[in-house]
Specification:
The chain is an alpha/beta fold and 299 residues long. It has three domains: 178 residues, Transcription Regulator spoIIAA (2-Layer Sandwich), CATH 3.30.750.200; 42 residues, no CATH class; 61 residues, no CATH class. 42% of the residues lie in helices and 16% in strands. The protein contains 14 helices and eleven strands. The strands form three sheets. The chain has a six-stranded mixed sheet. It has a three-stranded antiparallel sheet with strand order 7-8-9, with no helix packed on it. A two-stranded antiparallel ribbon has the order 10-11. The termini are far apart.
């Protein structure tokens, strides 16, 4: 996107209402001119899709950058006045080891971003790699994909390492220094309203959800009318989304009653814990969170 077109878009947003504006970038695509223009136009947060600082692991993902590229990008952003920087990492990439993961984490220590996202590597079962894993084959790097135990160890190692840097987990995949949590992501996890613009963007008004068409032609034809909304089960979403937060949730009396059985089961298993009126995942529970959270859907 050209900086002039970005300016046209940003000019549509009242500046006194703009709290956080995040720009997502691939490493190696940032220039001093672009970063300066972003900052001038109101972009005050940049998320870098780094994934790894190890060249061999990056080749497996088709990325062309290296650690020096990321270091240079971070320097450009800070010089332009953008200090709110997130770095994405992926645990469980093909060929990843404890040693290589430790090297990536040491790069985080060196660069000191205030926010880090750590995602677990997920394989699309319909992809070539996914099919090969299902068949137990070795092509497309299937044999190099770490097992579940090693991936869990990588993730837990990141939690400890980042905590020592003062970057604490506030959501399953997101870590921040105090006061640097992502404001727009917190809206999703706290069940607050938001509006999505563009292809396949979704919106929530506090009660209903709706999505935009996926293709440009459909979007241009239908943008003048809303897609058919669905009524949200707010109790389900309170658990399914809110329990992702490290702080957990404070269930209502009705929710304690409705979800009594799954709550009791996961408390007994040591995957959930109570802290006064709040309910939250334990460290063990975070590792199997998908299984736990699913129990609160259609319960």
């Amino acid at each position: 996107m050209s900086t002039s077109f970005l300016g046209e878009l940003m000019d549509l947003i009242p500046k006194d209402r703009l709290g956080e504006a995040t720009w997502e970038c691939a490493p190696g695509t940032i220039t001093e001119e672009a970063a300066g223009a972003w900052q001038t136009r109101g972009i005050n947060r940049v998320s870098l899709g780094v994934q790894s600082f190890i060249r061999a692991e990056l080749r497996q993902t088709g990325r062309r950058h290296d650690a020096a590229t990321v270091e240079h990008d971070v320097s450009i952003l800070r010089d332009s006045g953008i200090s709110n920087i997130n770095i994405d990492l992926i645990a469980g990439l093909p060929g990843q080891t404890l040693d290589s993961w430790d090297e990536s984490l040491h790069w985080i220590e060196r660069l000191r971003p205030p926010h880090v996202s750590v995602y677990i590597f997920e394989v699309d079962e319909e992809s070539r790699l996914g099919n090969e894993l299902l068949l137990g084959g070795s092509r497309y790097g299937a044999k190099a994909v770490p097992g579940e135990d090693l991936t869990a160890e990588l993730y837990e190692g990141a939690v400890r390492h980042l905590a020592r840097l003062g970057i604490h987990r506030y959501e399953i995949s997101n870590f921040a220094a105090p006061g640097w949590e992502s404001r727009h992501n917190l809206k999703y996890w706290q069940g607050e309203p938001y509006v999505g613009f563009g292809l396949d963007a979704h919106s929530f008004d506090g009660r209903q959800r709706w999505g935009n068409p996926e293709t440009l032609l459909e979007y241009l034809e239908e943008r003048s009318r809303s897609a058919e909304p669905t009524i949200s089960d707010l109790a389900e979403e309170h658990f399914f989304v809110g329990l992702r937060l490290s702080a957990g949730i404070e269930p209502t009396p009705q929710e304690w009653s409705r979800f009594r059985d799954p709550i009791a089961r996961w408390l007994d298993a040591g995957m959930l814990e109570r802290a006064g009126p709040r309910l939250r995942l334990t460290d063990r529970g975070v590792l199997v969170s998908n299984e736990i959270l699913q129990e609160f859907v259609n319960a």
